[in-house]
Amino acid sequence: MKKIVYTQYGSPDAIELIEIEKPVPSDNQVLVKVYAASVNALDWHRLRGAMGIRLMNGELFKPKETSLGLDVAGRVEAVGNNVTKFQPGDKVFGIAQGSFAEYACADEHELVLKPANVSFEAAAATPVAALTALQALKDRIQPGQKVLINGASGGVGTFAVQIAKSFGTIVTAVCSPRNMDTARSIGADHLIDYTREDLTANGQQYDLIFAANGYNSIFDYRRVLGSTGIYVAAGGELAQILQALLVGPMLSKFGRKQLSFMGITQIEEKDLSVISELLASGKVVPVIDRWYPLGATSEALQSFGEEHTKGKIIITVRPDHDNS
Ligand SMILES: NC(=O)c1ccc[n+]([C@@H]2O[C@H](COP(=O)([O-])OP(=O)(O)OC[C@H]3O[C@@H](n4cnc5c(N)ncnc54)[C@H](OP(=O)(O)O)[C@@H]3O)[C@@H](O)[C@H]2O)c1
C-alpha cells in the first residue's frame, strides 16, 4: 500500500510517498481502508518540527513517528480480536494516526459510523477541527448568549460558528473580507472584518469569546467580555496561546471573567457521536476549500502552511470510491 512519511523536520518537500505492507490491527484496533483524510494544524506543526511537539513527543532531532494524518473516513477492512463495535465493510470516520495512506489503523473508540447522507470527504474534513470547536464551546455556552469567534473562516472556526449556532447562540464571526460570504452562509449573525475593524471598538460585549485563530491581546478580549464572560483560546499566533496559558489564569482571579487556553483536543467517542449527529442533521456542513490526491499531499501541506485555508483541505485517497 501507499503511505506518506517524513523522516526529517522541515518543509513539505521532505515528505515521501512510499510503498509498504498493509498494517495489521492490534486486538483493540480497526484497519480502515482510507477513502479520504484531511489536513490539520497538528500535521503541519509535526512536519515543521514545532518545538512544543518535539518536547512533548520526545522527538528532539528527528521524528520517531514518521506517518502523517489524523482525520480519516473510509471502510472497515478488518478488526482486531477485541473489537465489538465494527465489522468489515462498515463506513466510518474518526481519528487514525497515519491517515495519509491507503490503509490506517484506528483505536475502536476513536471511530464512529459515518451518517449515510454525509460523503466520505465531508466526514474526513470533520474529526479534529469539529472536536476542538465542540470541546471549546459545549460546557461554556447557553442558548441566547452572544458568542464571538476569532479565526471564524478556518478549519476550527467554520465548525465553531456552526456548532455555536446549533446551541442557539448569537454569533459574531471575525474574518477577512474574502471569507465574509462563507461566514454568513454557515450562519454567522454578525461579521467583523479583522483587516479594517477593531473588535473592541463596536461597543458590543460577549458572553463567550473563542479564539480559534488570529491574534488580539488578552486584555482586548477581557475588555469586551460581559461581567461573567468566558474567553477560551485554541490557537492562533504564539503570543495569543501564551497569553491564554500564562496570563489567563492570573486575570481570572480578579473578578468573574474566566480566561484560559482550552488544552489539547481530546478524542472522545461521545463527542464524535455528537458531531456525527450534527452532520447527519445538516446543522453542521463542513466547509471544504480544496482537494488533493494522496500523491500531492506535499502541495496540500504547503497550501495549509500559508495560513489562509477557508475551512478544510481534503486528501482524496481513493477518488473512485463508491458512496453506497
Ligand atoms: N488546542 C488544540 O488541541 C487545537 C486543536 C486544533 C487546532 N488548534 C489550533 O487552532 C488554530 C486554528 O486551526 P485551524 O485548523 O482552524 O487553522 P486554519 O484552518 O489554518 O486557519 C486558517 C484561517 O485563519 C484565518 N486567519 C488567519 N489570520 C487571521 C487573523 N489574524 N484573524 C482572524 N482570522 C485569521 C484565515 O482567514 P483569512 O484567510 O481571511 O485571513 C483562514 O480562514 C491553530 O493555531 C491550531 O494550531 C489547536
Mean pLDDT: 96
Helix coverage percent of residues?
25-40%
CATH class of the largest domain: Alpha Beta
Distance between the termini: 23 Å
The Rg value, from CA coordinates, equals 20 Å
Biggest β-sheet, characterized? 7 strands, mixed
Helix and strand succession? EEEHHEEEEHHEHEHEEHEHEHEHE
Overall structural class, as computed from helix and strand content, comes to alpha/beta
Number of domains: 2
Ranges with pLDDT <50 over ≥5 residues? none
Looking at the structure, what is the overall shape?
globular
Oligomer designation: single chain
Count of extended strands: 15
Task: Tell me the β content.
Answer: 25-35%
CATH topology of the largest domain: Quinone Oxidoreductase, Chain A, domain 1
What is the CATH homologous superfamily assignment of the largest domain?
Medium-chain alcohol dehydrogenases, catalytic domain
CATH hierarchy: architecture of the largest domain:
Alpha-Beta Complex
Q: Which ions and ligands are bound to the chains?
A: NADP nicotinamide-adenine-dinucleotide phosphate
Q: Can you describe what's shown?
A:
- With 324 residues, this protein is an alpha/beta fold.
- The chain has two domains: 2-126 and 286-316, Quinone Oxidoreductase, Chain A, domain 1 (Alpha-Beta Complex); 131-261, NAD(P)-binding Rossmann-like Domain (Rossmann fold).
- It has ten helices and 15 strands.
- The chain has helices at 41-48, 51-57, 120-124, 127-137, 155-166, 180-185, 218-223, 238-251, 269-281, 297-305; strands at residues 2-5, 16-19, 29-38, 71-79, 91-95, 103-107, 111-113, 146-150, 170-175, 190-193, 206-211, 225-233, 258-261, 288-293, 312-316.
- The strands form three sheets. Strands 3, 4, 5, 6, 7, 14 and 15 form a seven-stranded mixed β-sheet that branches. Strands 10-9-8-11-12-13 form a six-stranded parallel β-sheet, with helices on both faces. A two-stranded antiparallel ribbon has the order 1-2.
- β11, α7 (218-223) and β12 (225-233) form a beta-alpha-beta unit.
- It is globular, with a radius of gyration of 20 Å.
- The site of NADP nicotinamide-adenine-dinucleotide phosphate (NAP) has 33 residues, from α4, α5 and β9.
- NADP nicotinamide-adenine-dinucleotide phosphate (NAP) is lined by residues 40-41, 128-129, 132, 150-151, 153-157, 174-176, 178-179, 194, 212-215, 234-236, 262, 264-265, 304, 307-310.
